[in-house]
Design goal:
Blueprint: H1 2-10, E1 32-36, E2 39-47, E3 57-61, E4 68-73, E5 79-84, E6 88-97, E7 100-109, E8 119-120, E9 123-126
Antiparallel strand pairs: 1-2, 1-9, 2-3, 3-4, 4-5, 5-6, 6-7, 7-8, 7-9
């Protein structure tokens, strides 16, 4: 029992399903920069061509070099952010609350086996500026 409690205290915080968003979302109102601890990312208005999901748009992350970084809206009125380098993939799903994105994320890898457990992944809108180099090719 003590091992379980220690593991829960040291590891990422488990996060439940954020549930559906309360209102339909307009993608253009979400375009901009966000901050999560030391990570910053931007949701762009430029379409991103994805063979997996329609309506995707480009995103940029300051801390992750990934070849595919994009976001889209779901039928649940939530926002999904994907950062994928084809070896590791982080997928986050958020509900919008004011200027914050509140939700959870999963990180998958081809290296480790086992289920990916969701962890809390929240971000707040942040002024765009230094910290996100949109010209670095991710």
């Amino acid at each position: 029992m003590a091992v379980l409690l220690l593991g829960a205290a040291c590891g990422p915080r488990w996060a439940p399903d954020p549930g559906p968003g309360p209102v339909a979302l307009d993608w253009s109102s979400l375009v901009g920069c966000y901050r999560r601890d030391t990570m910053r990312f931007s949701l762009d208005s430029v379409p991103f061509v994805s063979r997996f999901q329609n309506g995707t748009r480009r995103a940029v992350s300051s801390t992750r070099r990934a070849s595919d970084v994009y976001w889209y809206l779901t039928g649940r009125n939530t926002v999904v952010l994907v950062m994928d380098d084809h070896l590791h993939r982080t997928t986050a799903e958020f509900v919008v609350r004011g200027d914050s994105l509140i939700g959870r994320a999963w990180t998958y890898t081809d290296v480790a086996r086992g289920p990916a457990l969701p962890y809390a992944f929240d971000a707040v809108r942040d002024p765009c500026g230094d910290g996100i180099d949109q010209s670095d090719g991710f």
